[in-house]
Amino acid sequence: MADALFVVLSKLADSLGEQTLERISTKLIEVAPVLTDFEHSMKQIEAELLILQAFIAQVGTKVGDKAFDAWLDQVRDVAHEVEDIIDEYAYLEVQAVDTGSFFKRKFLQIKKFAAWQKFHSQISHVEARIQRLGEIRNRYGILSGEIDRSKKLRSPNRLFMSDSSYLTDNSEIVGHVDEIGRLTQWLLEYKQERTLIAVFGMGGSGKTTIASSAYKSQKITRTFNCHAWVTVSQTYQVEELLREIINQLIDQRASMSSGFMTMSGLRLVEVIQSYLQDKKYFIVLDDVWDKDAWLFLNYAFVRNNCGSKVLITTRRKDVSSLAVDQYTIELKTLQYAESWELFCKKAFRASKDNQCPENLRFCAEKIVARCQGLPLAIVTIGSVLSYHEFEEQGWESFYSQLSWQLANNPELNWISNVLNMSLNDLPSYLRNCFLYCSLYPEDYKIKRKVISKLWIAEGLVEDREDGTTMEEVANYYLVELTQRCLLRVTESNACGRPRAFVMHDLVRELTSNIAKKEKFGIAYGDASTTQVPPEVRRLCIQREVPGVVTELYNLRYIDFSYTKVKTIPASFRKLVNLQVLDLRFTYVEELPLEITTLTNLRHLHVFAVHDFQQRSLNCLGATKIPVNICHLKNLQAIQIVLANKDLVSQLGNLKLMRSLAIAEVRQSYIAELWKSLTKMPNLNRLAISTCNMEEILDFKMLKPLSNLVFFKLAGKLESGVLPLMLYYFEKLTWLQLDWSGLKKDPMSSLSHMSNLVHLFMCGSYCGEQLTFCSGWFPKLNYLQLSKMENLNWIEIEDGTMMCLNNLYLVDLGNLKAVPYGIKYIRTLHQMHLTDMSKEFLGSLQGSASPVVQHICNIHIFESSDSEAVNKFFFEPYLATKFGPGATKHAPTYLGSSGI
């Protein structure tokens, strides 16, 4: 490095002058060896970090080994310290690269020599700590190498948990009536071939209890020649399982005298096969964690066409898929009434009829609600409280400290141990992703798209380098977490793909404690926090916005949506690691040129809302962005950008683009824009709007974008006719046509879109009648018709839109009567009416009353009542995104947007 610099300096000698050159050369002689040595040290320390991270991921936690936990905590601290050194080094390197030429880069290194020089002492300190940790491990006998062996040992608590679930009295079972009935029916039904039945659900949901109720039923067991129950667990040994099965099938003394204790696994399989050959057997495999266990036992349990049954319980959906012909039961959490009954049975078992004293009812109800229907938690907490005095203050104190109790009270270890087993079973790549989920507030709906971006931004998602995008890998992670019953799907899109998840609150509580203990991350739910632990790697502040963000050069995800942010400063160029910038529903009208230096940016969302009900052409405000944004090759989503001639031609550089929204498009841009769009093979969401109501767009002769699932087009169409390319948009699930000026009823032209789930039409049709024929739109769930001045009749045939759930009719002044065919749509759950005629609204109470009597919810609004509209449409969304009370901090334009 020094030689190269001297060559450069010699060429600059004349222009710089001898004295200047001599000063720089002297400094360089002093600095160059240090920098060279430092670069070598950085490579070594980076290698050390990889080993540290792999070690931490591999060893996990020793159950009950406090010395090991304390030592591992120190190892994590060292790994974090190394990460900080590497991050700061990368930041200084990026600053140097930004300066341009080779000479300038090296000159900057000399200028900031003090900043570089401190790394030597930091690295030396880290190396000393690593060496010291090795000495401590040896001194106190902390044997990390024996972790695998220790994991195979079953703790007394684990045995107690399994046995106690099995020994539960059937009279104590509450709920799951349908599931027990179905299981009983399957076990008693006559079917020659061996049947594999599976019961799955999250830890503590009562799988073992339900299985044991069937196993102990004489009505069931007497129909079989023999039966056995074995607990498989995470740490099963095949030979031990086989011997336990033999001990239960055959007299234990006979099995011991036959030498089964010394037989190999294969020989034990043969013994079981021989014994079961001509018998109708019933075997329960409790607590199965992976498919491998069954793949081996499958050979032992012969298929003898005697009507045998095998029942497995598991926490994993993929394991339950082993069951044939959909003989699976998913055990969900209890309803509140069932939870209350079970709690009272345990907490007030000494009182008459298990009645809750009135003075405790309010607190008891809060405790039951906190358990969220999980039988394990209800039974355990209820049993603990049954020994407490029935005194209100004591119970309130217990409830207020419930988080601490779960983490520290030995009497509640049962809950944490059972739930933590699912966490400890996760591979390292999934474990960190799941820990990240615990940073969300209680009962928060975790959105698939958002959490995927956050995981990627945090570096928690692996780059497989096989053509699979990191977003797709993140989706695989979410699927696996739901398969393991750690996340529950609460919403799915039209294709059945999950789009929102929740974490059980007790699971979140325990996982959050682990995240805090391991310094992975910490969440604060209010503004009362005054101090933040400096060693925490991730901080989630659910009610505060940091004052300064541009100095956080490691920042990867910024969400300023629904705030009063007006400008993005040029200093954002420092955020070189930024991947997601969310500025939706803000006041930002233009992005600075410096945004184009953020080469890691993947998602850019920025727009304001002028009309929340989207009844005007420019209801969503576009943002002006630099044309050079098209050089950010990692961009996958942009919305909503202001179109110009140069931008539309350069968009084709963004070949990874999946979602694009572009506004103020002119007809003169269309050809270039479409040429760019065809270069985006992954594009599946597209929104286009024109510059004004007079601009006419012509889409003739354009190549269809066959991968689109979302298409929004706002603006007049040539000749008032739908473009032919729409006939090739067969994958569309969402279509929005606004202000199209269509002269012919468009429904027959759109009826081929059999996958359509959402259809919006605002001011798009000039005619008087719309017709929905039988068989059309079989998957349509959401229909909105608005601002069609001439529309006076809607014909709905029997057999059309058979999945419609939501119908919005807005500002259809000439529509005087409720469409009679609505009575055929039995799935219709909600009808929203805004600015409809007095005659139309009057018919709802009169002649049309029988037509709409099956609709549960009919909401009527006037656009002048902006407060009512905001409260109904907007506040629930804000509450879901930010939690209760979020609307108090919403931007002022949301209440004065002319809605």
- CATH homology-level superfamily of the largest domain: Ribonuclease Inhibitor
Which word captures the global form? globular
Oligomer type = single chain
CATH topology of the largest domain: Leucine-rich repeat, LRR (right-handed beta-alpha superhelix)
Question: What is the strand content?
Answer: 5-15%
Largest sheet: 14 strands, mixed
Distance between the termini: 65 Å
Q: CATH class of the largest domain, please?
A: Alpha Beta
Number of helices: 32
Mean pLDDT level: 80
What's the β-strand tally?
28
- Unreliable parts: 1-31, 145-163, 882-899
Known CATH architecture of the largest domain: Alpha-Beta Horseshoe
User: How many structural domains are formed by the residues?
Assistant: 6
Q: How much helix is in the residues?
A: 40-55%
Alpha-beta classification: alpha/beta
List key phrases describing it.
disordered N terminus, 14-stranded mixed beta sheet, 28 strands, 899 residues, Rossmann fold
Report on this model:
This protein has 899 residues and is α/β, with parallel strands linked by helices. It folds into six domains: 2-148; 156-330, Rossmann fold; 336-417; 429-541, Orthogonal Bundle (Arc Repressor Mutant, subunit A), CATH 1.10.10; 551-741, Ribonuclease Inhibitor (Leucine-rich repeat, LRR (right-handed beta-alpha superhelix)); 746-863. The strands form six sheets. Strands 11, 12, 13, 14, 15, 16, 17, 19, 21, 22, 24, 26, 27 and 28 form a 14-stranded mixed beta sheet that branches. A five-stranded parallel beta sheet has the order 2-3-4-1-5, sandwiched between helices. A three-stranded antiparallel beta sheet has the order 6-8-7. The model is unreliable at 1-31, 145-163 and 882-899 (pLDDT under 50).
